[in-house]
Design brief:
It is a single chain. The protein has eleven helices and no strands. It has 227 residues and is mainly alpha-helical. It is elongated.
Length: 227
């Protein structure tokens, strides 16, 4: 028994030695390939780091700075100026999109442009920019959907308007925005003659968001229809 264990131990040691020798032999034969692969990986990582540190981050900061005046005009409801000529030599949202389209500011400018065109009555263009905007966070994904719904509603395309209001109301729950879009769903459903759907939306508002302004409107309509 002792001899068998000794033999097995020697076999294991031999296997380990052979494995090490094979690995060493492989490395010696392919060391340039192996080292070249490691060097290429390091080069790729370094290139990405340089891109973000030396190009992308400064470009993001420059784009946000360039958009400052356009945002001011947007807040004043001067949507035409915000789009093309905010003043002071600053870029409008359209120039920000053209010049910094792949930056965070360039992406956000698409949302601003969409809402601006919505307020200017150019609904198809508004939808185009809003659809191209890639939202982040918890609020913008909801307001983007709602704004697209508004554009379709203004166009008289109530089927698409209802669809986007549903998406906005069904996105991550928000104490203000969710009842706001449920209210839009209810009012548009009633306008379309779908009273049952309108009442259902109003009930959702009253039950889930009793302390909101939309709840006051919901109570009036529910009383009106005896619900």
């Amino acid at each position: 028994m002792g001899r068998r264990k000794k033999v097995e131990k020697e076999e294991v040691l031999i296997d380990l030695v052979e494995t090490r020798e094979n690995a060493q032999s492989y490395f010696e034969k392919n060391q340039f390939k192996v080292l070249g692969g490691i060097g290429l990986l390091a080069l790729i990582i370094g290139a990405f780091a340089a891109y973000f540190m030396l190009y992308k981050s400064p470009r993001d900061a420059k784009a946000m700075s360039a958009m400052y005046k356009a945002e001011q005009q947007f807040e004043r409801d001067s949507f035409a100026l915000a789009l093309e000529n905010p003043g002071g030599g600053f870029d409008g949202f359209l120039d920000i999109i053209d010049n910094y389209g792949r930056t965070k500011a360039g992406n956000l400018a698409k949302y601003y442009a969409g809402v601006s065109y919505l307020n200017l009555g150019q609904y198809d263009t508004a939808i185009e920019y809003l659809q191209s905007f890639n939202p982040s966070g918890t609020v913008l994904p909801i307001t983007r959907l709602g704004a697209i719904g508004d554009a379709y509603s203004e166009k008289g395309d109530f089927e698409n308007a209802l669809s986007f209001y549903k998406k906005a109301a069904g996105a991550k729950e928000n104490e203000f925005l969710t009842p706001y879009y449920l209210n839009k769903l209810a009012l548009l459903s009633e306008k379309q003659g779908n009273v049952d759907a309108a009442l259902d939306y109003f009930k959702q508002i009253k039950e889930k968001f009793p302390n909101t302004e939309a709840s006051t409107t919901a109570e009036k309509y529910l009383s009106k229809f005896g619900s």
